[in-house]
Amino acid sequence: MNQQTAPVTTATIAEGVKERIRRGAYAPGQRLIEVDLAEEFHVGRGRIREVFKTLVGEGYLEFVENRGVYVRRFTRDEILAMGRVREVLEGLAARLAAESRLSPEQVAALSGHQARMDAAVAGHDVDSYNIENFQYHATICAIAANHHIDDFLYRVRLPLYRLQLPRTFSADSMAHSNRDHQVITAAILAGNPDAAEAAMRAHVRAGNAHVARLAADHFE
Q: Less crowded by CB within 10 Å, the N or C end of the chain?
């Protein structure tokens, strides 16, 4: 019996493009070629234009008149401004998570992220740390269960996908970042909202300070 292949939808193509941006397969400022994507996904160029329109609206891409569609590039000032918003929103998410009665599955998810970040630090594995870092923050937002936080954070986290810790990031700095996570995790699991919010806000401020210190070529 032949298995039918699921149809390729605009949403699945858009998610594929976003995932490539997040992992750095498409670099900031890179032009995306409509005909190439149409051939790759085996769809018409009209479908790719729909995807471009969607992702321009979501902030992943930008349209430059008479030139085409490019992966959006954010300035340092834009990212720092978003970081100030993240400080409040991520702090609130941590507070709400700590106020929640966590299910065994939520405890396991949060503890699992922390254990894998601990292991990544011990193994000096920046790539694995980056992956767990983003998933850790997403899990806290999921536990907080406030869709307004999710909606706003979706936008202000976007440029950080392309500013993950560089492979040259020092082991001491990565360990310091993870110590922040350990404090946040402990506060949430202990049900201490004040400590969870304060620790998360301090953590995001430290991340913003890291962005402020990055070399200019990270934004070119």
A: N
